[in-house]
Amino acid sequence: MITTLDGPIVIEPTVSPPPGVGVRECGEPLAEVAGVPGVHAAPAYHQRGITAAGPRIFVRRRVLAALQQASAALPDGIGILVWDGLRTLETQAEIVEQFRRTLPDPGDDATVEMYLALPPASQEEFLAAPPPHATGGAVDVTLCDTEGRPLDLGAEFDEFNERSWLAYYENDDRSEYRRLRRMLYWAMLGAGFAPYSWEFWHYELGTMVSAAFHGERFAEYGAAIPWRKP
């Protein structure tokens, strides 16, 4: 039971994929993020012209129920806006290459991997440790008003710099961004999600990262899309 949405954000840097965690696919079907009270969809990559990204957002069925639970924990007038969920490998590769072009060194994999999962090099790698968004268990979310308009949490979606780090505003006692990020953080954790330290918008449920966060040995969600080398 959530008793507060304003407690401090305390989180260790996230490692993905986490060591020592395996995958036991549960076979749960996908569901579209649509028609759920308090949960709005705004497919950001489609709207930004990523050619492989579609106009609809899909997640695992339990993830959708958990998003509704998180929304129900928020104050009146505030909901959850979903920017992305299930992502094809083609979409992942296109996003990675677009980000690389913004870096002084396009081959800087360490910086890329802080914010994005590199496309797997083989089917074996894909099945053993699928990118979180390929499982249907990862979502990119923010807070919104009742019309689905995003609130300002101090950084734009996919603004890959320090302002996007989950706890970036934690030391600013007067920050409205801190208040809103804490609100989103505790609502999502209360619904069972695991946070991601480098992006305030990224949360996971049933994935390898989520399993590690909750002290479990196996993820429930493996790849929800077929292997296809992008």
TrEMBL record:
Alphabetized GO MF terms: D-Ala-D-Ala dipeptidase activity; metal ion binding; metallopeptidase activity
Transmembrane spans: none
Keyword Metal-binding: yes
Alphabetic keyword roster: Cell wall biogenesis/degradation, Dipeptidase, Hydrolase, Metal-binding, Metalloprotease, Protease, Zinc
Catalyzed reactions: D-alanyl-D-alanine + H2O = 2 D-alanine
One Gene Ontology biological process: proteolysis
PANTHER family according to UniProt: D-ALANYL-D-ALANINE DIPEPTIDASE
Name listed for the protein in its UniProt record: D-Ala-D-Ala dipeptidase
Lineage: Bacteria, Bacillati, Actinomycetota, Actinomycetes, Streptosporangiales
